Amino acid sequence: MKKMLLMAVMMVMTISANAMSYNAARNEALFLSDKMAYELNLTAAQYEAVYEINLDYLMSLNGHGDVFGIWWDRRNADLRYVLDSWQYDRYVALSHFYRPVAWKAGGWTFAVYAHYNRGHFYKARPTVFETYKGGHRSNYGRSHGHNMSNHNNAHRALHREIAQKPRSNSSGSGHFGGRR
What we know:
By secondary structure, this protein is mostly helical. 50% of the residues lie in helices and 4% in strands. The protein has helices at 2-17, 22-40, 44-60, 70-82, 85-93, 95-98, 153-164; strands at residues 101-104, 107-110. Strands 1-2 form a two-stranded antiparallel sheet. A hairpin with a 2-residue loop joins strand 1 and strand 2. Helix 2 packs antiparallel against helix 3 (44-60) and helix 3 runs antiparallel to helix 4.
């Protein structure tokens, strides 16, 4: 019994050893979101939401199998809802945004660094950088009616901005066929 318990603890330690730390995920989400804000001409509210979406995605990574798993699908669904159709089309066309992480030689690599200088930022940190700890993990498109009292002012601004957007049945591209 003692031996089985020890093996179980070692397996959990091995699995979690590949997980990205909160600070690493936060810094990578900031860098990626900053470049997305620059390239996709994001509004302040979109920038806040994109940072949160990217942080949630990066914090969900535990190993090779997670790179393009369910959290990547959820990230894309959330971004499909937050971005305008032209922004989403551009996002998908830019592989360093659409597929930002790879698992190589037992570690994470980030495609965005092949396109941008590591130390250069275009925007100030999003206001949620210090307060958002991750875990939103609900699809913006599916949870539009969720309880807004649990969210900060940036979420409220985003939802007001999204509510004012004209709706269409299809953006003309992507595998979802339309906004959610």
